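Hey, I'm writing a tutorial for new members on how sequence and structure tokens pair up, and I'd like a real worked example in the thread rather than a made-up one. If someone can provide the structure for the chain below, I'll link this post from the tutorial.
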Amino acid sequence: MFNAYIHFFLKFLDQSWTEINRGSFACQLQKPLFQIDESKSRLGFWDSQTRTIGISGRLLLSHSEAEILDVLKHEMAHQYADEVLGAAQNPGETPHGSAFRHAAARLGIQHHARYAAKEQANPQLRRIQKLLALTQSENPHEAQAAMMKAQELMARFETDLGSGFQNFFYQFLGKSIPRKSLQHQLISTILVRYFHVAAIWIPSSTLLNPKTVWLLEISGTASQLEVADYVHAFLHRELKELWRKHQGKNPMAKGQRFKRDFQVGVLKGLIEKLATQQTESSTVGGSLIHLKKERLNQFLQERHPDMVSGRKMTYRRSDAFHAGLEKGKQLEINKGLKSSKSDNHRLTSG
């Protein structure tokens, strides 16, 4: 079945490359060969010897147009660095060196191949990771103390990061969805308020379906993105598991309406809990944290100058909602940061 789409995908890459070359590089690039890459370990590649840009077949089949274009731009930045700025002939130039960074800036994309933190994490981040893992303790007082201490260290970590030059990156979280539910929006709110990232929902479409899909993009430091990615995956898993358990105890609670009420309640309860913990924890370096948030919001505004606020969604305070609210107040974000990674993290651009 995939073979039937090869011509369609190659045509899309060809046309998109032409538009980007004209808009960002004033047609300075010469058209390369395009290849559908069957590798499962990367999103794309640029081969300067064969003048080939390869894009993952999995990416083309199942991801949004916005994600595909982001990878295509990354490979075009490599092409521009090599063929216009001469990076390929400079033995001192690294693949993501100054030439590539210049090209990436012209395209409005991040200049790192990966947005994940370095393998050897900052000692502060390692402490935060250990504290988040401790929140799974059977002792509720120990678990709460660990979360409060994690919040305090995150505030101090923000202060340290805000005191110097800051690199911000962006990342797509999860898969594209046909509509933004209130649960999705509440999770993005949690990431913004309590895990120090900026977030925006981007409308896009898949290549094989013109209907609008939505993609959650977050921005922040590499370490912040790693934390937010874990929390995002954790909350989606917990919502499913908590609803399954609630249904087991309440057989009459069936249907999407009851599920929505319950899950919204869980997230509202968690927000109440995190707000209380944030108030009780240290507010060290508040002015520096505020300054860093302003810089992050400026980074987001530069990436999406035409962004607008979405409408607020309402919810019912039903019995299912209140049951979820109590579960949310008891929820602990636990089990460390590296237990779950999305497909986007396992695939890299070359």
